[in-house]
Write a structure and sequence with these properties.
alpha/beta, 9 helices, 13% strand, binds adenosine-5'-diphosphate
């Protein structure tokens, strides 16, 4: 694992984003990248696996959503999920889904929130109709894998958001199952407020 100091960029212009994304950011009222955004986005756009240490409310969602949205194939080219975002709770899944939708304003993007406790029939229909990005909780994602309703052959990016919290809750087996089901040649982005040994071990095994 390499640790590198990354100089923070001052503006979204320096991040070499598409005009569509810049319009979305302006519409969302984002004027300047937050520290996690300015550090993570360039590395993620280069296809690297990245561990980002950042607390809740620091703009993590845009940090991983922007590189994903910028690199998605269109739904006509690929109807199966290309990116999976794993989050610890239903509330966070909804929140991340909403924020990603907001940033995808200029793109025709299908984003599915697959959270536990929610109607599975609707989720199955959504997956069947074709989605590009999936945001879900480990249990429900695992459930969809078992039902074979969640296809992972075309996944090129997996995000583990709030990884420390997910491991604290005891989601390690489900997370490992999801990671093992995704192609080996993929990008993995791990976001965590703290980096205890459990998180480091997960990163060493799968990144
Ligand atoms: P988290 O780090 O918990 O994922 P969010 O990504 O949800 O946090 O960001 C917290 C809030 O800050 C959200 O309302 C989001 O829209 C806003 N936000 C994120 N990045 C920026 C930015 N660069 N400029 C202004 N607001 C931002």
């Amino acid at each position: 694992m390499n640790q590198i100091e990354i100089p923070e960029v001052e503006s979204f212009e320096e991040l070499d984003l598409s005009p569509v994304m810049r319009r979305s950011l302006a519409k969302a009222g984002f004027e300047k990248p937050s520290p996690i955004q300015s550090q993570l986005i360039p590395l993620a756009m280069d296809g690297l696996d990245v561990i980002g240490q950042a607390r809740t409310g620091t703009g993590k969602t845009a940090a991983f959503s922007i590189p994903i949205l910028e690199q998605l194939d269109s739904l006509e080219d690929c109807r199966d999920p290309q990116a999976i975002v794993v989050v610890p709770t239903r509330e966070l899944a909804d929140q991340v889904g909403r924020e990603a939708e907001r940033l995808a304003w200029g793109y025709p993007t299908e984003i599915a929130v697959l959270a536990g406790g929610k109607n599975i029939t609707r989720q199955l229909r959504q997956l069947n109709n074709g989605v590009q990005v999936v945001v879900g909780t480990p249990g429900r994602l695992h459930d969809h894998l078992q039902r074979r309703s969640l296809r992972t052959d075309n996944v090129w990016c997996v995000v583990l958001d709030e990884a420390d919290r997910m491991l604290d809750i005891g989601f390690r087996p489900q997370i490992e199952r999801i990671l093992r089901k995704c192609p080996r040649k993929r990008q993995t982005l791990l976001l965590s407020a703290t980096l205890p040994t459990s998180v480091q071990r997960l990163a060493e095994s799968y990144m």
